[in-house]
Amino acid sequence: MSWLLVVAGAMIGAPLRYLTDRALRARYGTRYPWGTFTVNVVGSLVLGLVTGAAVAGAASAHTQLFLGTGLCGALTTYSTFSYETLGLAQEGARLTALVNAAASVLAGLGAAFAGVACAQAWWA
User: Which ranges of the chain have pLDDT less than 50?
Assistant: First the structure.
């Protein structure tokens, strides 16, 4: 049963990542990896919410598997973030690569903390 929840969440997360990336590339171009940045920050926020809800007793183990492991696991992507950042540096856009790395880490952590704080405010 647990693996089915993970698969179901991933079946939503993976297409969301793909569609988000495509939509942002079409709108803003490919000079900066906005799609990857966006899904990673949104995924961090959702995972923070799920974690905060679980700590407060408001999210079941099934919810954690479906949203946390499945959806967020397929939505977010560290490997693509690394690949795109390396690509920026290799293309000579070293400052952009550095900004991407710093902004992604800081925004992701900030989103996770914000998600936990919101969950604590809602369910504490």
Answer: none
pLDDT tens profile 35-71: 999 999 999 999 999 999 999 999 999 999 999 999 9
Q: Under DSSP, is residue 77 helix (H, G, I), strand (E, B) or coil?
A: coil
d(CA 67, CA 10): 9
The answer to whether the CB of 78 falls within 8 A of the CB of 46 is: no
CA 9: distance to chain centroid? 13
What is the C-alpha to C-alpha distance for residues 39 and 48, in angstroms, rounded to an integer?
Answer: 14
How far apart are the C-alpha atoms of 22 and 109, rounded to whole Å? 24
Instruction: Find all residues with CB under 8 Å of 2, minimum gap 6, and list them.
Output: 62, 65
**Spatial contact of 37 and 96, defined as CB atoms under 8 Å apart:** no
User: Taking the CB of residue 35, how many other CB atoms lie within 10 A of it?
Assistant: 24
C-alpha span between 110 and 37 (Å, rounded): 13
From residue 115, alpha-carbon distances to 9, 86, 95, 99 in Å are 19, 29, 29, 23
